[in-house]
Every structure is written in structure tokens, then in C-alpha cells.
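PROTOCOL LOG
Step 1. Enter all chains and additional molecules of the complex.
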Amino acid sequence: MKKPTYLADGIIIASSTAYLADVDRYLDQKMTEAGVDESARADIAISLSELVNNAIIHGNKKDKSKTVEVRFALKNSRLKITVEDQGTGFNPGELANPIDDDNLLKEVGRGLFIVKNFVDEVNYKRSNSGGTIVEIIKNL
Amino acid sequence: MKINYHEENGVVIIEPKGKIMGGPESTALHDLLHDLIDQKKSRVIIDLGRVDWMNSTGLGLLISGLTTLRKAEGELKLANVTEKIQSLLTITKLITVFKTFDSVEDAVKSF
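Step 2. Run joint prediction.
Step 3. Record the structure below.
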């Protein structure tokens, strides 16, 4: 399985949850360089882990030949992170509400809900190859 | 990946550390929980005092442990819940599902 590729502004991993820690460490380094304060760091880290998990499991169906690409940009105290998979896209409007009583004890399905609570914006785009790009923005 | 645990007055106390985000550490916690359940342990506390944070995968593991234990008439409780995890439990309404305690001692006494 291919090891992570580090870019100036991002990291590319094969679709395996074994690489979640690599992404987290890279994010941690980036947040330290940018001087992100402690109160925001966990929110951002949790959110990114949710998106990368989703890209690996739901986007790329854990196909290790497919990649997840994470990119970071910080400008004017606005941190933007994008997570791109090589899947076939999804409709965020079709997600069940995890805080409905019927869904409360489900083991899955609350990742994006958590992200929306921890960041300022969540945007979804289709990549040129049909995969999903999720963009999160956190005002620092 | 080894997760520490010990038993006290018939209650198993599991002590995960670090970040629970869906990687090998999550598999280890899931496997340990279910191994203990297979050994007929019915009273379990997860001491979250050394967990930096967890994501929805971590929450899913807790739910899995809780529901499996309750089916066997057991219970899973949480101790030393950090501020960030408390925030997660509140946002997801799981604070209404799990019993949480400020200390392991209080959690053990509650059984």
C-alpha cells in the first residue's frame, strides 16, 4: 500500500484508515505553524478525521488503489480544508438526522452532523472525475 | 495496540489513551470491549480521562458496547469525560443515553 505523499499544502493517502493518524499529525503541524489556538484545534482535527473517514469508507469504499487528497489553505484568519475522494459522489440532503430518536442508538451516521457543529461552513462539490470534494471553513 | 484495563469490585475499567478516530486504536478498543463481553463481563466503565478527543467512530464504538451490554442485562458507563467529549455527547444527544461520572470511583460505586 502506497505511503502518504506530502505536498506543500496537503497530503494524499491511500484509502485505508491506517493513515488517519498521518493526516492528523500533518494537520497538527499545520495548525502549529499557523498559530491556531487550542480551543479550535480539536474541533478542526475532529472534523477533518470525520471527512477523511467518510472519503475512505463511503467515497472510495476502502479501495486502497484510490486516494484521498487533503489540502489546507489559511488566508486572513480563514482556514479552508478540502477533502477529495475518487468515488462516485453523494447527496448530502439524503442523510438521516442522527439526533432523531429513531437514529440515536445507530453506530454510524453522525460524522457530517458533528462537522457542521464544529466549523463555520461546509460545502460540497463534484470533482472533475465525479468524486466528492468536501470543503470546510473555520474562522480563526 | 494494547489498551489498559483492570477490574475493581467486579467492574471492568477500560483506559484508552490518545485520539479515537477510526484507525487501529478504534479497532483495538472495539475488540477489547467485545472480548470482555464474550467473557460475560457485564459491568464496564470507560475512563475517558486520557482520551484527547474522539470522533463519530469513537462514539459508535461506545454505542456498540452499550447496546451489546444492555442486551445481556449489563451496563456501560463513562468516567472522567473531558470537556470536548462532553461537547460531542451533548451535540449528538448521546448525553441522554450514557451515564457519565466525574470519577472512576463514582462510576464504580454507581453499580
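Step 4. Note key features.
The mean pLDDT of chain B is 96.
The longest strand of chain B covers residues 4-8.
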